[in-house]
Amino acid sequence: MKVATQGYADGVYTGPPADAYYGIIQIQALVQGGQLSALKVLKYPSDRRTSISINRQALPMLRDEAIRAQSANVDIISGATLTSRAFIQSLRGALKKASS
Q1: For the whole model, what pTM was predicted?
Q2: Of 70, 41, 38, 36, whose CA–CA distance to 54 is shortest?
Q3: Pairing mode, if any, of strands 18-19 and 11-14?
Q4: pLDDT, averaged across the chain
Q5: What is the pLDDT of residues 27-61, one digit of tens each?
Q6: Handedness of CA 55, 61, 64, 69 (dihedral sign)
Q7: What is the helix (H) or strand (E) element at residue 80, kind and residue range?
Q8: Which stretch of DSSP H or E encloses residue 31?
Q9: Distance set, CA 8 to CA 19, 27, 42, 65, 89 (Å)
């Protein structure tokens, strides 16, 4: 995890939907005071027991790590590779908007 040094423009930014193979993940980022302060998962695969189990564990971990890092440069979680990649892709899109 590498902590970002740049500030972001305050606001709410929605990332693009990203394919996690078993469904779509879409992230919304809240920026306050130039810092990433909260993330909301708008969409995630939740129609299979396996997806629910993986996402219930992985998404909060990814969210917390991204807020600590102040970026989408987070580690992929073992056992949740597709979820992690889709989370990162959607969050990068949201933070790109916040940087523009």
Answers
A1: 0.91
A2: 41
A3: unpaired
A4: 93
A5: 999 999 999 999 999 999 988 999 899 999 999 99
A6: negative
A7: none
A8: strand 24-32
A9: 26, 16, 21, 17, 18
Question: Each residue of 52-68: pLDDT tens digit?
Answer: 999 999 999 999 999 99
Amino acid identity at 32: Q
Asked if 90 contacts 26 with a C-beta cutoff of 8 angstroms, the reply is: yes
Contact 10/32 with Cβ under 8 angstroms? yes
| Maximum Cα interatomic distance, the chain, rounded to a whole number of Å | 39
Structure tokens at 68: 């600590």
Give yes or no for a contact between 67 and 38, defined as CB atoms under 8 angstroms apart.
yes
What count of residues does the chain have? Answer: 100
Confidence (pLDDT) at 86:
97
